[in-house]
Amino acid sequence: MKRYLITVAVAAFASGAAVAQDYPAKPIEIIVGYSAGGGTDVMARTVGKFLEEALGGASVVVKNMPGAGGQIGFTEVAGAKPDGYTLGTFNLPAALALTYDRAADYDVSSYTYLANFVEDPNTIVVAASSEFETLEAFLEAAKADPGAITVGLSSLGGNDHFGANMMAAASGAEFTLVPFKGAAMARTALMGGHVAAGTMALSQTTSFQEELRVLAVLAEERSAFRPDVPTAKELGYDVQMSSLRGIVAPAGLDPEIAAKLRDALTAVNEMPAFQEMMAEQGNPIAFVAGDAFAEIAQAQNDVARSIWEETPWK
Amino acid sequence: MYSDLLHALPNVVAFANFAALVIGVLAGIVVGAMPGLSATMAISVLVPFTFGLDPLVALGLMAGIYNGAMYGGAIPAVLLRIPGTPAAVATTFDGYPMAQKGEGGFALQVAVVSSSIGGIASAFALMLLAPPLSKVTLLFGPSEVFWVAVFGLCSIIFLLGGNPVKGLISACFGVFVSVVGSDPIFGTDRYTFGQLELLDGIHIVILLVGLYALPPVIDLLETPLKTDTSNSDKLGTEPIWRTLPRMLRFWKTWLRSAAIGIWIGILPGAGGSMAAFMSYNEARRTSKTPNTWGNGEPEGIAASETANNADTASALIPALTLGIPGTAVAAVMLGGLLVHGLQPGPMLFRDNPDIVFGFMWQFLFGAILLVFLGGSLATNSFAKLLKLPRPLLGSVIIVLMLIGVYSIHGPMFDVYLMLGFGAVGYLMDKLKFPLPPVVLGLILGSFAEENLRLALRIGRGDWSVLFANTTSQILVLMTVAVIVGPIIKRRYFNKSANGPDEKA
Q1: Which of A44, A252, B15, B118 would give a disulfide with A82, using CB separation of 3.0 to 4.6 Å?
Q2: B194 contacts in A (CB within 8 Å)?
Q3: Number of domains comprising chain B
Q4: Chain A residues closer than 8 Å to B410 by CB
Q5: What does the DSSP assignment read for chain A?
Q6: CB A66 to CB B186 under 8 A?
Q7: Residue B331 and residue A231: Cα distance in Å, rounded?
Q8: Which residue range(s) make up the domain with B308?
Q9: Do A203 and A249 share a domain, yes or no?
Q10: Beta-carbon separation of B196 and A67 below 8 A
Q11: Do A259 and A304 fall within a single domain?
């Protein structure tokens, strides 16, 4: 019996190794939980294009499975066979926030975290015509009349929302949150003066520099895209929130295949042509691979859970 | 503001985009000429197929079809007294008597020239009015948008003519459909029965295809049309450049009808057939020889056809600037824009000027092309179209519908949903419930809900925020006028003001 088990183990190991060596033997699919043409889709297609090269001529296909705020796609990846042929894009904190506000068939442990590519920090932003010139003045007004300051969000349960909540908690201010349908709607309302401020991601503000005034970025360091804008941390509020986009595989992926994919994705990130293309698309890159990415996911999960427990949004 | 307009021009005349427009106009004339098939139907069947196309190619096809169909409807209206589209009903009044007198060719030429003039005027209205309006609409916040949506819903119910109660029930059905999915603020599931597919709500194109394409197809197969084509054999066609001078005396009618058509187009709720009726009545009222009307007066065709093309581009003015479609066709076109990731509203003009202004040029060129394509060369052959075997036509359309709907997202669920809406649409059609309120109920219902809730959040629960500024107050007054107006009119004038059955 013992011998049999050893044989099985050896065989399994050997076949595993063989699988990893042959990988990829067929096209790899990247599942995107959003429609073609969106930010996440464009990232997946860009990464996919260079991943083909990094894996030595493999074929990478992007499959869009939009719906339910990305949940259909996230669920599909979590439930796929962990053979390295199904990967998916992963959006933080959205993907994990979803697991709190509705029934989901996955959680933070359902994935093998391969690499994160994009980190787009949230901001505190007002219209250019706004009376608030600084973050301090803005927060003072929010404290003086709690709830009088309206903050437009792209939705509840996303990074805009969490950013606003964390800013409120750090400063003791109180906002009235107004969740629009998407970032573009929130931005239009902000420009039209219908809400006093917004917490949208920095990339949403870059082509509107004449109409919007970014008071602070909610990041550890100033953004290379807007070095003139201070971080909230510099101004005395240690608040960090951002939208992250990376690539994951289902949990239980063979460690050798996972390593191979991580190396390939790291190689993708080092290609100058890739960096150039991402910059053109206005995607701020913050490359993190493997365990460090898994830790970020865990941390984002904790933030989402604590906000859900303190102030459930539905 | 208008420099973007010129900037978009070169792209429009690029080969693929222009070819799309030509194909669109031809297809539109064919579709319009088929009794039972409308522009709304053709465009809703088309939209899912445009996914992979360049946006301007897709929009060119749509603009072409819309313009073409509005004229195409005149062909059977003149030759057979069967309006090809609901908007061509008023064209039968004088068109058919002319055909009986052997002047069918001239009647169709008047129709095509008038259609073209209406379309050109409408395209200019869109080009001139939409850009400045798009700046103003930034000032439309949640409470104003809420009132625009309420105004749109009320006007489609009360201005449509016919029975307001049936209109109201149709609109309620549409609003109910808009409620399905996660709610716009908290994301609470409503009527989803645990189906993730339903969480995003029901895709407008699914509803449109089911509602607008399936009932006419069933109808097509149900009633074998006996086509008496004797009139099309004695068209008496002369070259169009020779008949044109005889039309110049209609210039007043052309101007008046174009203005009526444009105005009706901008107004939410009313559509091509109402424009055609109003302008026919107006033209007849001011005519020096009212007794020739109804017996083959070409000016009647001019009035009706100018107006039903003049509402095409202008119907897109509220759609492009506010994202609020005034007619069912405009709603389908919005669906087409959304498919390409183009979110209507003030930002559209800023983010995609080449596309939005290109689209306007396409309307203009589509209207001009109409004269050449629908004019002398093709009218004869289009008349023969009516002899196509209807079962063949019906089955082709059904196949296209199934493929199209499946290709939007992929799941078969959407296809079943579309067939379900088709069944509902068929019953509604038989029971004479109007269909446009359903579509607008779906779109405007979700607009109204979302913006009401946003406005109340901004106002921290205080309802007075809805009446806080002048724009809102004006919109409230307009809404009241739309509801009360027809009631007063009916009571004091007691005319049988029964409008046409709106379908286009």
Answers
A1: A252
A2: 103
A3: 1
A4: 65
A5: -HHHHHHHHHHHHHHHHHHHHH--SS-EEEEESS-TTSHHHHHHHHHHHHHHHHTTS--EEEEE---GGGHHHHHHHHHS-SSSSEEEEEEETHHHHHHHHS--S--GGGEEEEEEEEEEEBEEEEETT-S--SHHHHHHHHHHSTT-EEEEES-TTSHHHHHHHHHHHHHT--EEEEE-SSHHHHHHHHHTTSSSEE--BGGGTGGGTTTEEEEEE-SSS--SS-TTSPBTTTTT-----EEEEEEEEETT--HHHHHHHHHHHHHHHH-HHHHHHHHHTT--EEEEETHHHHHHHHHHHHHHHHHHHHS---
A6: no
A7: 44
A8: 3-493
A9: no
A10: yes
A11: yes
Q: Give the residue-averaged pLDDT of B57-65.
A: 92
Extract the tokens encoding B121: 């005027």
Low-confidence ranges of chain A (pLDDT < 50): none
Domain end point (choices A201, A217, A233):
A217
| Range list of β-strands (E), B23-84 | none
- Of A168, A184, A217, the position where a domain reaches its end is A217
Q: Considering the domain boundaries, does residue B219 fall inside one? A: yes
- Domain assignment of residue B500, yes or no: no
- pLDDT of B498: 45
Distance CA A35, CA A73 (A): 10
Tokens of A113: 């975290």
CA distance A56 to A73: 27
Q: CATH no. for residue A264?
A: 3.40.190.150
Residue A261 shares a structural domain with residue A303: yes
Query: What's the pLDDT tens digit per position in B223-241?
Result: 766 656 566 555 666 677 7
| pLDDT 10s digits, A223-262 | 988 899 999 999 999 999 999 999 999 999 999 999 999 9
One domain, residues A70 and A109 = yes
* Interatomic CA distance for residues A300 and A288, integer angstroms: 14
Cβ B123 vs Cβ B313: under 8 Å: yes
**What is the residue range of A9's domain?**
2-120+242-310
Q: Is the dihedral of CA A265, A269, A274, A280 positive or negative?
A: positive
Residue positions counted in chain B:
504
CB pair distance less than 8 Å for B187 and A75:
no
Q: Indicate whether A27 and A108 sit together in one domain.
A: yes
Residues whose CB is less than 8 angstroms from the CB of residue B128 and which lie 6 or more positions away in sequence, other chains included: none
Same domain, A154 and A298: no
| pLDDT tens readout for residues B89-111 | 888 889 888 888 888 888 888 99
- Taking Cα atoms as reference points, which of A226, A195, A194, A193 lies closest to residue A209? A226
How many folded domains does chain A comprise?
2
A37 shares contact with chain B (CB less than 8 Å): yes
- The verdict on residue B68 lying in a domain is yes
**Residue B500 confidence (pLDDT) above 80:** no
Q: Select the residue of B138, B185, B197 nearest A188 (Cβ to Cβ).
A: B138
Q: Give domain status of residue B255, yes or no.
A: yes
Q: A147: which chain B residues are within 8 Å (Cβ-Cβ)?
A: 460
A188 closest CB neighbour out of B185, B187, B346: B346
Same domain, yes or no: A173 and A212: yes
Are B199 and A69 an interchain contact pair (Cβ–Cβ within 8 Å)? Answer: yes
How many Cβ atoms are within 10 Å of B52's Cβ, its own excluded? 9
CB contact under 8 Å between A102 and B347, yes or no, is no
Q: Is the pLDDT of residue B379 over 60?
A: no
Place of tokens 């409008």: B499
Residue A223 placed within a domain: no
The owner of tokens 């286009």 is B504
Question: Nearest C-alpha of chain A: how many angstroms from B51?
Answer: 10
Residues B374 and B71: beta-carbon distance below 8 Å:
yes
CATH code (residue A140)? 3.40.190.10
Residues 136-195 of A with CB under 8 A from B: 147, 150, 155-157, 176-182, 184, 187-189, 191-195
CA distance B291 to A152: 62
Please state the rounded mean pLDDT for residues B403-431: 87
Predicted ipTM? 0.75
